[in-house]
Write a structure and sequence with these properties.
This protein is an alpha+beta fold. It folds into 2 domains: about 90 residues, Ribosomal Protein L25, Chain P; about 80 residues, RNA Polymerase Alpha Subunit, Chain A, domain 2 (Beta Complex), CATH 2.170.120. Helices cover about 20% and strands about 40% of the residues. The protein starts with a strand and ends in a 7-residue tail after the last helix.
């Protein structure tokens, strides 16, 4: 299991004013939540946090190097990251403590491998689910779970209960939930007019054009 280091600084100020000042300085307010401990208000460099997330978008383990009255190292995950809707800049971050002897509950991305037989025969692969909710120890957390879809014929599907996961991982999603299927491609074909319908429409048009208009008395 790899963890990316990120510097953080304890902060004693709270409220909109200090938070606005932090953001002008390139920092964002953050909070670290530990198990059975008081939350620690922090600030982190927005640009450095962006680098961490870009390097690995899903379930990034972050070793917070916290500087303050005393220096601390805390292994964490980003629990919530608030982003300003217009500027798309980071607004606030919540870090949650990770302990190696405590299981995590997370959504892990699904990766589909292979081209289904049904697609080669004219069908369409439909992704019904993009991630899987699992529980496992941090050391056993996979980057993704791969599903082989090459054997799917048209009309075949894969459900959560069909997915094989590594030992030590518990799947929390219901087993009957669909994950992927190969469906028939529906093509809409315009209905052609029959000769009789075409003649009737032409006659109605001609009759309307020939009808006299009423004049003023």
């Amino acid at each position: 299991m790899e963890a990316t280091e990120l510097k953080a600084f304890t902060r004693n100020e709270s409220g909109k004013g200090p938070a606005r000042r932090f953001r002008k300085e390139g920092l964002i307010p953050a909070v670290f939540y530990g198990r059975g401990e008081e939350a620690i208000p922090l600030s982190v460099n927005a640009a450095e946090l962006l680098k961490v997330i870009k390097a690995k978008k899903e379930n990034v383990f972050i070793k917070l190097l916290i500087e303050g009255e005393k220096t601390m190292e805390k292994l964490s995950l980003i629990k919530e990251l608030q982003i300003e809707p217009v500027s798309r800049r980071f607004y606030h971050a919540d870090f949650y403590e990770v302990r190696m002897d405590h299981k995590l509950t997370l959504d892990v991305p699904l990766r589909f491998a292979g081209i289904p037989i049904g697609v080669q025969n004219g069908g369409e692969l439909q992704h019904l689910k993009r991630d899987l909710k699992i529980s496992c120890l941090p050391s056993g957390l996979p980057d993704f779970i791969e599903i082989d879809v090459a054997g799917l014929e048209i009309g075949d599907s894969i459900k959560v209960q069909d997915i094989r996961v590594p030992e030590g991982i518990t799947v929390l999603d219901p087993g009957d939930v669909g994950v992927a299927m190969v469906a028939v491609i529906k093509v809409s074909v315009p209905q052609a007019e029959t000769p009789a319908e075409g003649e009737a429409a032409a006659a109605a048009t001609a009759e309307g054009e020939a009808a006299p208009t009423a004049g003023k008395a």
